[in-house]
Design goal:
This is Rhodanese-related sulfurtransferase. It comes from Allosediminivita pacifica. Keywords: Transferase. The structure is a single chain. With 125 residues, the chain is of the alpha/beta class. It has one domain: Oxidized Rhodanese, domain 1 (3-Layer(aba) Sandwich), CATH 3.40.250. Helices cover 27% and strands 29% of the residues. The protein contains four helices and eight strands; from the N terminus they run E-E-H-E-H-E-E-H-E-H-E-E. A six-stranded mixed beta sheet has the order 1-2-6-5-3-4. It has a two-stranded antiparallel sheet with strand order 7-8. The longest helix is centred in the middle third of the chain and has 12 residues. It is globular.
C-alpha cells in the first residue's frame, strides 16, 4: 500500500491483491465509480456503484467498521473521487491502483456479460 498525505488526511493506494484480501475478509466497502453502463457490463461482485458523475461525499457510509476503497477502470477516476472525499472531510480514504483493468489483468474473479445471450455470469480468470 502506498500512502500520501493530503492536507490533514491520508490517501491510500491499494494493490489489487490487497483489495481482494480485505474484500474477501469483509474488511472494506468497495465502491465502483465508473458509469452505470460500465458496471452493468462487468464489475466486481459485491461492489457498490456510485458513479463519479453523481458522487456525493455526504452519502458515503461511515468508516467506523470498514474502510472505503474506490475503484474505476484505470485508477484515474477513483483517485479523483478519493481526493474529493478527503476534501469533504474523510480522514483516510483508499483507491485501487490500476482499477478494474488491473483486477482483470491479475486474473481476479468478476461478473461479466455473456455475449451470446446478454446475461451476467461469473468469470473466474
Amino acid at each position: 500500500m502506498k500512502t500520501e498525505e493530503a492536507g490533514d488526511s491520508i490517501l491510500e493506494t491499494w494493490t489489487v491483491d490487497e483489495v481482494q484480501k480485505a474484500f474477501d475478509n469483509h474488511e472494506i466497502v468497495l465502491i465502483d465509480v465508473r458509469t452505470p453502463q460500465e458496471f452493468m457490463f462487468e464489475h466486481i461482485e459485491g461492489s457498490l456503484l456510485m458513479p463519479m458523475a453523481f458522487f456525493v461525499a455526504d452519502a458515503l457510509p461511515g468508516q467506523g467498521e470498514k474502510r472505503i476503497v474506490f475503484h474505476c477502470g484505470s485508477g484515474a477516476r477513483s483517485e479523483k473521487v478519493a481526493r474529493a472525499a478527503i476534501e469533504a472531510g474523510m480522514a483516510r480514504v483508499a483507491h485501487m491502483e490500476g482499477g478494474f483493468g488491473a483486477w482483470k489483468g491479475a486474473g481476479k474473479p468478476y461478473i461479466g456479460t455473456n455475449m451470446a445471450n446478454g446475461a451476467p455470469h461469473r468469470v473466474n480468470s
